[in-house]
Amino acid sequence: MKRTTIYLDPELEVLLKLEMHRQKRPMAELVREAVEAYVTRERRNAPPGAGAFSSGRADTADRADEVLAATGFGTPPAPRRKRRK
Fold it and tell me: For a FRET experiment, which of 1, 11, 67, 74 has its CA 20 to 30 Å from that of 22?
């Protein structure tokens, strides 16, 4: 576990301490349980656009050089011709 610091309003701290004594459980355990309940209470949707461009392939990262070469990415551009006046 990672140690962290939180700041509570005095009234909330009193309520938390009362609950700690009532349940005979450590404050840290109550806080962890409350935070977990809060962050898992509803299913989170993926960010907008996630998966919109899915290629259906799972090995794209392994084939990155091949994929980039097929698009011409990274190849130097052809020299430009000088314009005639």
Answer: 1
Q: How many domains does the chain have?
A: 1
* Tally of CB atoms within 10 A around 84: 4
Is 45 inside any structural domain? no
Classify each residue of 20-34 as buried b or exposed e, where b means 16 or more C-beta atoms within 10 Å of its C-beta: beeeeeeeeeeeeee
Range of the domain at 27: 10-39
Distance, C-alpha 26 to centroid of its chain: 30
Q: Is residue 85 part of a domain?
A: no
Q: Is the residue at 32 inside a domain?
A: yes
- Residue reference for tokens 């656009």: 49
Rg over CA atoms, the chain: 28
